[in-house]
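Help: why these numbers?

___
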Amino acid sequence: MKGFPEDFLWGGAVAANQVEGAYLEDGKGLTTVDLLPQGERRFEIMLGDLKGFTPDPDTFYPSHEGIDFYHTYKEDIALFAEMGFKALRLSIAWTRIFPTGEESEPNEAGLAFYDSVFDELRKYNIEPVVTMAHFDVPVALVEKYGGWRDRKLVELFETYAKTILTRYKDKVRYWMTFNEINMLLHLPYIGAGLVFKEGENKKKIQYQAAHHQLVASALAVKACHEIIPNAMCGCMLAAGATYPYTPDPEDVWDAVQKDRDTFFFIDVQARGAYPGYAKRMLREQGLFPDMEPGDEDILEAHTVDYLGFSYYSSRATSTDPEVNAQAAQGNVFGSVPNPYLKSSEWGWAIDPKGLRITANQLYERYQKPLFIVENGLGAVDQPTDDFVVEDDYRIAYLQAHVKEMKEAILDGVELLGYTSWGPIDLVSASTGEMKKRYGYIYVDRNNDGSGSLKRAKKKSFAWYKQVIETNGEDLSEGGQSI
């Protein structure tokens, strides 16, 4: 009943394709995000409208340079250590290990890079929390097989998973298979490397790809348990409770259905079987995926050890067409405005209480340890000439969410840790921008790729350091009420 446990894993979270840069260095192959430009075309491609498989030399792709973490990781990790990080969530780029996804031998330069990163983290006693696939599929596999629509990717992903598990078995104890696996239903290109042709049944392809990822995830969990018996292997979803807009039973039922779009994947990964509501929907709509003999046994036998989730906002839903016409476009889940909540500059509802609600909801449903692996405020920071950023708004956002996280623990929710999103400014996944900043560390880089890449501590840097030092007890530095 004291709140945060003594071994609570405070830290931050990044993704390879949003920070590393060096997109073709040391033998790395093209990954799907390397074909995402800034601007309107970015969102069209994320929905599955890719026109070609090579970068356009006249187009700016923000992932190609990122924030140059590939070359600055020692400097950046030292800053994380100064804040007192206990953990850093990061991902391995599949194409650094297998550039096309089909090589018979892994790329040693790619393996060595992550060896160096993990060694640097261990130097400061920072626990790596590693995501195997964070929105990156080898472009060669999209071009040849159509991404995760093809069963071949299950075999190739299993090889990749076994390779990295074996290589880093003495360096990494916390693993996750797919980042925000439910995003496959909302942004199918980044979720599964899906590119659609005219006339295709998109939903059928998405659920087939989802089945392949679920089988691949189970096989990766199996490999993790065999190769690193003392490790924990989890799954990860984009979470956020859905509220009915009114007490109208139709709105309430619609909210239940919207939440099930999220729960479907985790029901399989945590419970080991397709839930009844999903089977009914898939059969009635003609979307049931093709399965191979033994698939159901694989899913049942190899469930995850914990559940990682991102939380940025809650959602609201209505069956009233007039209300739905106001749905916010800044959020891929299409939430209608909640009149009781304020929104971020990108239209995401700011709902700290929703984090407590979501954590309780997930823990009661799965009875497995939870890990909040993404949470934060994307905002436009206005630095002074010497890169001083007074980000009281970010401190206020995080204060409120950490308070509710503690309340969830007091409710009985088992939380392993909290890695806030983007502890250092990085490329936004949804927009490709740099101006949508999350970090405690400012990076001098602009949307057009200009800037010195100089790092500077924001006001929130000292605040988060204090939070970690006091194990979440002192949240008082700076900030303002929301």
Summary: Residues 9-469 form a domain with the TIM Barrel fold (CATH 3.20.20.80). The two ends are 27 Å apart (CA to CA).
